[in-house]
Amino acid sequence: MPERLQCREKEVSTLNEFLQKTIKKNKPGSLYISGPPGTGKTASLTKVLEKIDNKECEHVWINCMALKSTSAIYEEIGRGFNIKFPNTVERAMQSSLEELFTSKGKMLLVILDELDQLSSKYQSTLYSLFEYPALEGSRLVLVGISNALDLTDRLLPRLQAKLMAKSRPQLLNFAPYTKQQLVTIINERLSEACTESNEVVIKPAAVQLLSVKIASVAGDARKALDIARRAIDIAEGEARKQTTLRATSDDGSNPNSPRKNRPGAPVKCVDPVLIMKVFNQVYGSYVTSDQISGSNDDGFPVQQKLLLCALLVFTKFSKQREPTVGKMHGVYGQICKRRNITPVDQSEFWSLCELLESRGFLNVKKNKSEVRMSKVSLRVDEQEISSVLQDKTLVASIMDEARTLKL
Q: What is the pLDDT of residues 318-355, one digit of tens each?
């Protein structure tokens, strides 16, 4: 993590103020942090927590995506605070946590990442969690993190009622990064990486282009830095090849021989052409062509292609014609890994499923209790997929390796 978080000063200040008025003043409270992936939510909170003294509070950080069920959250919270439940029935665990949160002692901070994964039919789990800080004598500070901007309004409408005003969380949204913010972030990381030299690794025009493209697609700083890193790796690889060729052809009499005077391969500067090449690999070339021409064709980004291929693998090579989102994400991850493509997380993956359903390629049977248990099935066959994706080579290569995938 960088020493200083660029372009999130306002959000970090809000987080500091929230923790000052709760933990520092021994007052309970709740905060809901929203924003798309890669907008600095987790990084900002982690940075702020570094200033919290362990003597002031105990804290536990839970990724709700890893839970087997929504009710497992109570057991996980108890484990984080070294509480052994005499009974693992949900109601009994709720009562035990209520006793913990209202007992005397230092403040307790619970951070729930991917909070939307606790959504259930009547939202009883989410309601109970947000009600804990409002209990008489509570010492709980609850922080929920999710991508959805309207989660509390959409899933927890009762929190808006006057009777539940104490349970209503403070809201903090992290907006997608703008083009100029991404330029600042990328340049800051480059300067940190090149502290020993003033060598230009990525041309300014390439940084500008990458920032424009990412800002228009998602505003995801992680994606921007990942693309920049990949482009640098490719450039370094090409530079090493050229150096090796020159060194091999040198008979040793040349005083400027790379083997004698250049212990490390020179870094080839990343230009806009290479940035666009890597960008297209990550997002799919249709993004670029659509934005330039203004057309609205039926092209597919690479992540959607791989998702469809993962589902096709299940349809052809598994008895599970309707795999769960969780299982399909696992196979999709294997396919991405073999192609050196960074997979999206399960939350983004679910969004892609919903998008492809709206385009008529999938059927999604939503699970009311847990999103990752929702079932997905294809509406089209292999031939149609190859035709629509306009990438028979990709489909064929994935089908060839299907039997080696862990389904």
A: 877 789 999 999 999 999 988 888 888 888 888 888 87
Please state, in angstroms and rounded to a whole number, the distance separating the CA atoms of residues 188 and 185. 5
Going 160 to 164 to 170 to 176, the CA torsion angle's sign is negative
pLDDT band per the 50, 70, 90 thresholds, residue 261: very low
φ/ψ of 145, rounded to 5, equals -130, 135
Task: State how far the alpha carbon of 115 is from the alpha carbons of 70, 217, 289, 347, in Å.
Answer: 10, 24, 36, 11
Predicted confidence (pLDDT) per residue in 93-115, tens digit: 999 999 999 999 999 999 999 89
- What is each CA distance from 341 to 108, 332, 338, 378, in whole angstroms? 39, 11, 8, 23
CB contact at 8 A, 135 and 98: yes
